[in-house]
Amino acid sequence: MRFSTTGNDIAVIGGGVIGLACALNLARAGYQVALYDPADPGTGCSLGNAGLIATSEVYPLLNAARLAALPRMLADPLGPVAFRVADLPRLWPWFWRSLAIMPPARQEAVARSIALLNRDAMAAWRDLLNLAGAPELLVERGMLEVVRAPQRPAGLSDDQAKMARHGFITEILDAPAVEYLEPALTGRVSGALFHPATAHMQDTYAVSLAMVEAFRALGGTILRAAVQKLHPGLDRHILETDHGPFDARRVVICAGIGSRPLLEPFGLAIPIIAERGYHRMLPSAGGLLTRPVVFRQESFVATPMHGGLRLAGTVEFADVSSAPNWRRSDRLHALAERYFGPLPPEAGSRWIGARPSLPDFMPAIGRVPHWPSITYGFGHQHLGLTQAAITARYVRGMVEGDDMAILRPFDLSRFS
């Protein structure tokens, strides 16, 4: 079967949460929009992530302290961070470039840029979910970042001060206060940092499905096609796909790690890798918590969702095509028992996702040089769900020709 050309105003490439949010926001503005993805929309990285709208998380994942702790982390093959040794030759250039963000001044510069993007992220999600008819999926009860007893909650005040510098207020709680909020943690934590401005989605896939339904109701088209190459034109751009050619006046590229082969022909440097994460779903444990909890020592998250308690996290640096290491998913169950006691050994879902990550831990959002009708938004690493709706708002602004000064730090020219 071959599709005919569509003649749409805008082609959005990528059906993950970023692409869906962009497509829906553009369709709302009255454009004829076609969304291209070889897979079903919403089945990418945000299908199984922790579900956080983590607006206060503004600092890079990698810093000097974590770099110093890396040997200890790597000593445990199932620890918070892992490398596939066979993939290291391909990953090494990315790690080398990431060292540029180690100086404190550079850390603060990244945090300032991310904070500006995150500042209106929650409002953007409220707006988009109202449009999609699913406001109840967003739960605004904050998030706890807990320290396991008997360790003293050292470092919380430093983190609190860092976030306050960028406008995000947090609160340090002692053990009784944590236990009041989440009784399931009684006797197992010594304190926590409470992030009141953080929220979570009750069902990440339902969020995508709601956006799909609203997009189609606004006249949007979804095509199961892989875009292999983009041929720019003065009036219309041609999308070369595995189902034949399509055309559009404007193109928005939100294809995650798949954005690189589409954009490199324009002379853009895109040092992106797949940083993989895992989850384990516990269907009968959904009532244990009322809000997400981040476990600082073990670097994972437990989020209450419609389908149960989702345990998500860990960082695995590996090629996107490498086979999953499901022991990392299973390990999350054992780690959770340190805090909740024995949990049912149920056969809940296991999942792996590839977070598209750039070495400065900032997304790529901007226009293609010399082709202002081709825009992009991808590489949001751990903050894809958090930043999807606000990215969609700014992508619409770029499509409509607005001057987006706030986006300059995210332009791919930074890697030239």
Main sheet: strands, sense, barrel? 9 strands, mixed
Task: Give me the secondary-structure category.
Answer: alpha/beta
The helix content, as a percent range, equals: 25-40%
**C-alpha Rg (nearest Å):** 21 Å
Task: Summarize the topology.
Elements: E1 8-13, H1 17-28, E2 33-36, E3 52-53, H2 64-74, E4 81-83, H3 88-98, H4 104-118, H5 121-131, E5 138-139, E6 143-148, H6 156-164, E7 171-174, H7 175-181, E8 189-195, E9 199-201, H8 204-217, E10 221-223, E11 227-231, E12 237-241, E13 244-253, H9 259-263, E14 273-282, E15 293-295, E16 300-305, E17 308-317, H10 326-340, E18 350-357, E19 364-368, E20 371-378, H11 384-399
Parallel strand pairs: 1-2, 1-13, 2-10, 4-17, 6-15, 13-20
Antiparallel strand pairs: 3-9, 5-9, 6-8, 7-8, 11-12, 12-13, 14-17, 14-18, 15-16, 16-17, 19-20
Helix pairs in contact: 1-8, 1-11, 5-11
Description of the structure:
By secondary structure, this protein is of the alpha/beta class. The chain has helices at residues 17-28, 64-74, 88-98, 104-118, 121-131, 156-164, 175-181, 204-217, 259-263, 326-340, 384-399; strands spanning 8-13, 33-36, 52-53, 81-83, 138-139, 143-148, 171-174, 189-195, 199-201, 221-223, 227-231, 237-241, 244-253, 273-282, 293-295, 300-305, 308-317, 350-357, 364-368, 371-378. The strands form three sheets. Strands 4, 6, 7, 8, 14, 15, 16, 17 and 18 form a nine-stranded mixed β-sheet that branches. Helix 1 (17-28) links the parallel strand 1 and strand 2. The longest helix is centred in the last third of the chain and has 16 residues, at 384-399. The radius of gyration is 21 Å and the shape is globular. It starts with 7 loop residues before the first strand and ends in a 17-residue tail after the last helix.
